[in-house]
Amino acid sequence: MQDQPTGQPPEEAISRREFLAFAGASTATSGAAGSGQNNGTPVKPLGPAGVPIVVNGVEQKMDVDVRTTLLDYLRDHLHLTGTKKGCDHGQCGACTVHVNGQRINACLTLALAHEGDEVTTIEGLGAPGRLHPMQAAFVEHDGFQCGYCTAGQIMSATALLNEPCGPNDADVRECMSGNLCRCGAYSHIVAAIQQVRKGGNE
């Protein structure tokens, strides 16, 4: 039998279009098989049950997906929605909470990484009728407009009280640079913080 000319595909070869269609179907099938689906029911990669964490002075027992961030745990499991989800990339500060007295971005850390830690959210800082001095100062100085960033701003500001920070407004702005306000209420925020730092609203 005579060989086919070089560079010519055999007659039984599939076309490029058919090959791509087959490859796409195979990829979709393998993706579905490895997506954690079991008869249409998502399989949750749960962590250890009953992991303790103290939130606003109350011990909670975490039983969550290992991928759950602290932010999502607070909002979706404990329904503490004062902590806001802004950028979800640690760039805006709207999700700032205290962990063992230190401020962190809750969107950047996993809930299960905080076994035994003490977490404070804006709900645990003060309450109507007994506002924290920083909350009262924000109200007095109109340190918010739309209010979306306010919880994170206040949590950062209260943590700043126990951190090394120079006395000037420029120092405060630098220490608060991780918290963004799209409304631009920065001068009011700084005024509120400075009032508390100088002993006001105590």
UniProtKB/TrEMBL annotation:
Its cofactor is [2Fe-2S] cluster. The keyword ATP-binding does not apply. InterPro entries: 2Fe-2S-bd, 2Fe-2S-bd_dom_sf, 2Fe-2S_ferredoxin-like_sf, 2Fe-2S_ferredoxin-type, 2Fe2S_fd_BS, Aldehyde_Oxdr_Iron-Sulfur, Beta-grasp_dom_sf, TAT_signal. One of its GO terms (molecular function) is oxidoreductase activity, acting on the aldehyde or oxo group of donors. One of its GO terms (cellular component) is periplasmic space. Residues 49-125 form the 2Fe-2S ferredoxin-type domain. The keyword Iron-sulfur applies. Pfam families: Fer2, Fer2_2. Keywords: 2Fe-2S, Iron, Iron-sulfur, Metal-binding, Oxidoreductase. PROSITE patterns: 2FE2S_FER_1, 2FE2S_FER_2, TAT. It comes from Pseudoduganella plicata. This is 2Fe-2S iron-sulfur cluster binding domain-containing protein.
